[in-house]
Amino acid sequence: MALPAVAGPMTLADAADQRCRAGASASGFQPALPIATKTLRDTGKLTIVAIGSSTTAGAGASGEDKSYPTVLQDELRRRLPQAEIRVVNRGVGGQSAYEMLTRMNTDVIEQAPALVIWQTVAADVVNHVGEDKLAKILKKGIRKIQGAGIDLVMMDLPWLQRADRYPHYDDYRAVLKRAADASGVPVFPRYGMMKEWAHSQRFTPEELIGMNGTELVEAGYRCLAIRIADGVAAAVTTARPERTEARKVTY
Amino acid sequence: MTQVITLLRFMLLGRGPGEGGVAVARDARIDVIRGLALLMIFINHMPGNIIAAYMPHNFGFSDGADAFVLLAGVSATLAYGSLIERRGLVVSALKIGARLWTLYIAHLAMFILVCGVVAAAVTRTQNPLYIEAINIQPFFSDTLAALVDVLLLRYQPSYLDILPLYIVLLALFPLVYLAARRSPIATVLVSLSIWQAALWFGLNFPNVHAAGWFFNPFAWQVIFTLGIVIGLAMQRGIATPQARWLDAVALAILVGAYLAKTASGNPTGIALFNDWFDSVQLGSDKTNLAWSRLLHLLALVWLAMRWLPAGAGLLRHAVGRMLATVGKHSLDVFCAGTVLSIAGQIVMAETGFAMGPQLLVCLVGVSILVGLGIFLTWYQSLTLSGGPSAKPSQQASSQPR
Prior knowledge:
heterodimer; A: alpha/beta; five-stranded parallel beta sheet; 13 helices; globular; B: mainly alpha
């Protein structure tokens, strides 16, 4: 299968990034980010806090610069060259949603971001903390961020090659989705995307699951960041249709 | 009434009713409860298993870790406190130093074993979530840095955080013991102040991959100190006062904790308590300790001292004897239990948390730990009663004076 046609010259890196968009129509990410949009328009600045566990921290990558928040920052700076963009990484490996809730004030709200990307529930499903309990924790966290006047995106759990290890895996994903939907929070469809990637045959198993199976490695992180950047850049530039049009060509 | 006066005299000045120290026979309650705590820690370290859902921490504020640290304080007093009285500070400090070295080596050995188990599991199963479960990623991504951090106790993967705490606490033992000897109540007040001050200033020991140590030593020294005071009271032959009203208070705390923990939301309807109920039900502040944890533990300790038969009473039952053999070899059982629980987690996930394998893992694990306790007891009796030179040292250790 050939890559979609692209207008203008395309670098090798761009070509590699194209595969990240495999199945983008099936698992779309078109969030509405009114606060981030307004903040960017009024101040020219956009601060994003990425809070989460090992995926956010960049576990398995060769360095911090290869974690998804750093790639996201690079991508957004490249796409929005006039804006002052900062992505703060607040990932701590192995943390549960509750542990993140306890550091929500100091790690997130005090940074005064316009947008928070919350990647969580991995430790909770592994430790089976209880669905009702998790629902309450997520609700509290969402309320805290929204109460501070910050846009929020929740990240779905990763797709696993073998899902039957955790019989409650889909239930916990549903808890996350319900909590997000109830508060109008967009969910970044990581699970669906990874599944598409796996079926697209454009990734080696090592790239998807990670060296020694340790984590999504750099290629995976990069794709995660590219797809989040696609969604965020589109959302915050809706007021500038010429950009959106120009970007559409590249798909 | 005289009991209360004796207790007050002890709490203020650390004096016993008699002139000198009283010889204390080994109290089986310590070993039995510690054995129980160790088995509970093993089960709880395999989260998501059905038996863990029935462990006491679901029905109260404190759990096996609290009991373990408290009893560490009690038994340190009975062992090293008596040694300080008999042989002085220098010999005791050397002895404690040797023990600290053993604990440190045990911690490192356990770390390597756990890394090996997880590495083997991840390469064979391709399941990245095992890394998340134990937070062992830093060791695989930057082994050189992680190695140094492990040696400095600045990197503690999940479940490998109790021994570092114990190392710090035992190193502090001579200081706390000497203070408690002068005035238990003053020592407890200082200990509580350090805890609260650390909370206020956000103090904790450094952890390169988290906010601080999972068991903040500034907080958990409170429980260890209470253990030392209880041990000292036992050494001085202080009887537990026959205070029925305190029994009632302790019971009320346990019932209240049960209700708060198992309720959904805030049953009182008083908005002021909303946050407290959330913190109790959604997670517990294990890192920094909490008044609710401490009160719950104290209530349990009080009832255990009042109503569990002292001396060798608990050893009349087979279960008591079995738990005591586990509790007597706490370091070995704890280390074995930690490695087994992580292997158990992996087995449970690989079998999709099906009921049969879950129960089997728990049963096999507990059997191995109990078997280890029995084996070590037998092995000890073998080496102690065997040679003629071993006899005097056995007498010395069994009769602390």
